């Protein structure tokens, strides 16, 4: 068995057909089919069922797939370690994080890291907490940034930074000029909230429950993106809760500490990850202090 046959096999599965995989690999379909046939003869088993419209894995094919993916990952790790110059980070890595981190925290850090490591290629995948965790566990993202400690036996976690979720209004809002505001002062004001499953909403409601704060805001809007919240608040539609990192010059933080909440971000990655990822984690932790 040759490693190229492993790559060909995985490409066929990913593309869903021999022709699409052949086009991607720069091969003819007969040449690709020949290589898979050689592989099957060596195993003495059929690993792919060729249908008129789709390719299906046989039972033995499923077994081989699990090993093929491990071999591909091992080969990638080997290439990166062989090409590494001292402590320089190189290769391709993907990071998954929520909207606040992706838009206001990571860009500054990534810029510094890429300046120091010109052979490094980074991509950022924005997703909520559930999506980010699934991407890391499935191997589709190398590193995830999640809120709160993540309890999973397959993941390593490191504390990244502390964030504060604060109430904000437009700088033209009547409350923006007040230096002393109580929770009672905002009860009748409309609120622009994140959707109930968002990390920000969960952190706020957890804090209010823990401190027995009876707060039932008049919710005007429930939105999914940080940008939507910010734009709506800037237009004067109501009070919003956002990360202190994302407060723009058009917003004013209200002095309502009893309604603000603290949350922690953690870096998460799979155990036994390639060494280059550990260097990337160290670099991210190094540059977080520049925020």
TrEMBL record:
Pfam families: HTH_1 (PF00126), LysR_substrate (PF03466)
Superkingdom classification of source: Bacteria
Keyword set, alphabetical order: DNA-binding, Transcription, Transcription regulation
Domain HTH lysR-type residue range list: 1-58
GO MF annotation list: DNA-binding transcription factor activity; transcription cis-regulatory region binding
Organism expressing this protein natively: Leptospira idonii
Protein name from the UniProt record: LysR family transcriptional regulator
Keyword Ribosomal protein part of the UniProt annotation: no
Family: Belongs to the LysR transcriptional regulatory family.
Gene3D superfamilies listed in its UniProt record: 3.40.190.290, Winged helix-like DNA-binding domain superfamily/Winged helix DNA-binding domain
């Amino acid at each position: 068995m040759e490693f190229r046959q492993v790559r060909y096999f995985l490409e066929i599965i990913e593309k869903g057909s021999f022709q699409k995989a052949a086009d991607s690999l720069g091969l003819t379909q007969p040449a690709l089919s020949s290589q898979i046939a050689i592989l099957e003869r060596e195993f003495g088993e059929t690993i792919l069922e060729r249908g008129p419209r789709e390719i299906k894995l046989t039972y033995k094919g499923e077994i081989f797939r699990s090993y093929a993916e491990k071999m591909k990952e091992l080969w990638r790790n080997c290439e990166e370690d062989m090409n590494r110059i001292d402590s320089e980070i190189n290769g391709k890595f993907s990071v998954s994080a929520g909207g606040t981190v992706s838009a206001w925290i990571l860009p500054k850090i990534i810029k510094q890291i890429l300046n120091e490591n010109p052979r490094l290629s980074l991509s950022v995948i924005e997703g909520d907490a559930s999506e980010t965790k699934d991407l890391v566990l499935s191997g589709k993202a190398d590193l995830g940034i999640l809120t709160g400690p993540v309890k999973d036996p397959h993941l390593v976690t490191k504390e990244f930074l502390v964030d504060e979720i604060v109430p904000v209004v437009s700088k033209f809002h009547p409350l923006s000029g007040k230096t002393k505001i109580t929770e009672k002062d905002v009860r009748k004001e409309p609120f622009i909230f994140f959707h109930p499953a968002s990390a920000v909403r969960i952190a706020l409601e957890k804090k209010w429950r823990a401190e027995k704060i009876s707060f039932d805001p008049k919710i005007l809007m429930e939105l999914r993106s940080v940008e939507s919240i910010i734009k709506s608040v800037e237009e004067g539609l109501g009070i919003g809760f956002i990360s202190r990192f994302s407060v723009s010059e058009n917003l004013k933080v209200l002095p309502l500490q009893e309604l603000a909440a603290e949350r922690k971000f953690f870096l998460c990655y799979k155990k036994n990850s390639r060494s280059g990822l550990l260097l990337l984690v160290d670099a991210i932790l190094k540059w977080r202090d520049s925020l």
